[in-house]
Structures are given as C-alpha cells and as structure tokens.
Amino acid sequence: MKRLLFQPKIWKNLYRSISPIIFPESCLMCKNELAASEQWVCSFCHGELVYTYFELYTEPTKLDQLFWGRVSFAGTYALLYFEKGKSSQKILHALKYQSNPTVGVAFGKEIGRKIKLLEAFKDLDLLVPVPIHPKKEFVRGYNQSEQIAAGIAAVLSVKMDANFLKKQEHTESQTTRGKFARWDNVVDNFILKKGNQNVKHIALVDDVVTTGATLEALARSIQKNYPDIRISILSLAITK
Ligand SMILES: [Zn+2]
C-alpha cells in the first residue's frame, strides 16, 4: 500500500477526477469559466476561430497550392487557419503544451464531421498521425497528431495506426550518432509495417501545416517504396 501511494499515476488519476470540482472547467483560450453547454472553448472564443471552409471549395485550396510541383495528394483538408497571435494559436498551444490530449480528439471529430461526405476521402483505409520527435513526445506524454487522428477515426470509422510507418534499420553512420539526432534523418526512411500491405489510401494527420516539408518527406518516402498507395492530408490547421 505504501509503495502504491508513491506511484505518480495514482495521484494523476486522483487529480483528474477531482480537478473539475476544485477548478471549474475553463475556456482553453480566455480561461473564463465554461457554461454547461460549452466544451473546451467558450462560445465567444469559438466565434474567434477562423475556419477554412475547405470542405465547400470546388477550386484548389491554399493547402492544395502549397504542394503544387512538390508532391501529389489524393485529397487535402485543414479545419482552421492559424495566425500568429490570433486565437487559433492559443488552441494549438493548449493542445501542445497544456496536457490536453482530449482537445485534439474533439477537434479531430470536428474534422471527421466536415469531410465525411467529401468524395476525395470516401475510400480512406487508414489514418496515420505524423510522428513527432521522440524527445517532444517524452516531454509532452503524447503526440497531438495522434489525438486528432483518433477523433477523425471515431467519426469516419476508419482505422488509425500510429505505427504504420516503421523506421528502417539504421545504417552504421546513423547508429553512431545520438538517439534524437538520428530521428531527423529517418523521416525519409520509413518502411511499411507487415500487415499493412493491403492499404490503398492513407491520410497523414498533422496538427498544423506550415511549410509542408515533413508531409512532403513522408509522402515521398511512401510513394518511393509503395507507388500504388494514394496519400491524403488531414490537418487541424494551416498557417495563413
Ligand atoms: Zn473563451
């Protein structure tokens, strides 16, 4: 029993179950108390979010254009515009640094509802969260893209596999470097896990697309080894 009390997990769970009583749920963006009907973000702040409405576009979106001449995607979607200093930045901050993995799931569900009827994503087989640097995951305790993907997966009834892409065996020169330094150059060195060979259309899930460099590297790596797999992108936000 004594040893049990020293396990941080127990205290964490206890804190989680009583914190809403001690600290009423507050808006992730303005910190004001939430009304019973509100979740994560108060209605005022929700009105401040800048939606892309890409689901209504018939012409190419900003996200499509970002990858022109670089890599070809079956479909692309981002829910929000992200602008430095604006409210959507606070959402991402909350998602990344305030230990709020469930916010990601909630926004993922919203993405799922928006794209559910879009032709481009009808034959999606699998959702693959963009992997983050292991050091960041260690500090944060979770990968926010995985939370977003879990939300989308729940609405679309599509499988999610965070380990779909398996790092290829390290070459000798890579193993001599530090564990974290090595990660950066394996992003273009992924191979498909056994058991995923039947997948035809995957969506890479990201939190925010800025330059698109990571997505491009991942897509190129998949296309190089598996030219028959179609690839899409689903992101919570795109920088404006
Ligand atoms: Zn608010």
Quick summary of this structure?
Helix content is about 40%, strand content about 15%. The chain has about 240 residues and is α/β, with parallel strands linked by helices. The chain has one domain (about 45-240): Rossmann fold, CATH 3.40.50.
Describe the 3D structure:
By secondary structure, the chain is an alpha/beta fold. It has a single domain, classed as Rossmann fold (3-Layer(aba) Sandwich). The chain is built from eleven helices and seven strands. Strands 1-7-6-2-3 form a five-stranded parallel beta sheet. Strands 4-5 form a two-stranded antiparallel sheet. Mean pLDDT is 80; it is low at 169-177 and 179-186. Zinc ion binds at residues 27, 29-30, 32, 41-42, 44-45.
Overview features:
about 240 residues; alpha/beta; Rossmann fold; 5-stranded parallel sheet; two-stranded antiparallel sheet; 11 helices; 7 strands; globular; binds zinc ion
Task: Describe the SSE topology.
Blueprint: H1 2-5, H2 8-22, H3 43-46, H4 62-66, E1 76-82, H5 87-97, H6 101-115, E2 126-129, H7 134-140, H8 144-156, E3 159-160, E4 165-167, H9 172-175, H10 179-183, E5 190-192, E6 201-209, H11 213-225, E7 230-239
Parallel strand pairs: 1-7, 2-3, 2-6, 6-7
Antiparallel strand pairs: 4-5
Helix pairs in contact: 6-8
The chain binds zinc ion (ZN).
Zinc ion is lined by residues 27, 29-30, 32, 41-42, 44-45.
User: What is the second-level CATH architecture?
Assistant: 3-Layer(aba) Sandwich
Q: Quick one: CATH class?
A: Alpha Beta
How many structural domains can be distinguished in the coordinates? 1
Number of helices: 11
What is the chain-wise order of helices and strands? HHHHEHHEHHEEHHEEHE
In terms of per-residue confidence, which ranges show pLDDT below 50 for 5 or more consecutive residues? 169-177, 179-186
Structural class: alpha/beta
Number of strands: 7
Alpha-carbon distance between the two ends: 54 Å
CATH fold assignment: Rossmann fold
Biggest β-sheet: strands ordered side by side in the sheet = 1-7-6-2-3
